[in-house]
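Hey, quick one: can you model this chain's 3D structure?
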Amino acid sequence: MVSAERACLITISAVSLVALVGLGDAFHGAIATNADGAASVARVATNRRSPVSLGSQAAIAGWAGDAARLARESAAFESAAGGTSKRVRALEIMQRSSLEVSRTVSFGRNLPEFQGGWTAAAVSDLATDNFTRTAAWVVERAHELPLNLDTATQINERLTRGLIPDGVAGTVTYNRNPSALYDWLASAEAKDLERTDPVALASRVHDLIGAYDAFPDGNGRTSRLMADLVLLKNDRAPAFYTGIDDYFRRGNARASVSKGERLAYFREAVERGEAAMREHHLPLDAFVEHAGDARAANQYALDLERTRLRAAVAYARTQISWGIGVFRANLSRLTVR
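Sure thing. Here's the predicted structure for all 337 residues.
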């Protein structure tokens, strides 16, 4: 029976590895990291004394067949939709470009009223990690999440986790009451705009969430992720911003330009995102034009590669969670009563 248990768990490990390897070329060096992680999970499972008694070899073989079929169907779905590599590329764009224009990340803004004594680097690092995880969550659930205040609050809570106290993160302080915006998002007018011009709707969401400034912290990051959610729900690429100076001069809700100019800037950002999705990589020249010299351009190149790996790792976590969920569900089904 021990050997049967081990066989089942090894099968689970193999299915997990198949799911990870099936994520495609976009993983690059992150594949090895995540394969090691899946193997570690399998080692822990096989070395632990199981509290349940597994079924017969035939039952285990049947479950293994079901699991393998599920893995094949999942891989086929992802392949047909271009799903995994497409999602990783979207996450790359969201992480790199949105963090590029984040003052908290770029300057490591201290938050003395929330976390006194934090260094600028510590704030920047945690904000970056939070954003990567939150963006991966948005990418994975883009077609499920509604465009409402609850989604915006969940996004903001995830973005600011650890940066401000529990119970404050994700709360709405109503510096300006944003309820009119979210009521409008549920209106027929907004639905019609989403159908005819989702980029215009995303631009409006980006502008208004930033302008309302409803949350204690992270309003800019929340506005950009909510705008990307609109785009992803409508099978468009996320916005690809070029640099913090250009963003605050032309694209931010408080920029001294007209609504039409902000919309034009946002359309340019989405076009850059579409180009990056087609080219399967982030175009370096969009950043080089804002770099002061060759050294800065080289640093951008290094940062882009780090972004690719971090995006892959973040997405892989969702696949590992899926594998563990499948294991638990089927293990209970095989329990001998």
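One thing worth noting: The chain has two domains: 2-81+319-334, 83-290.
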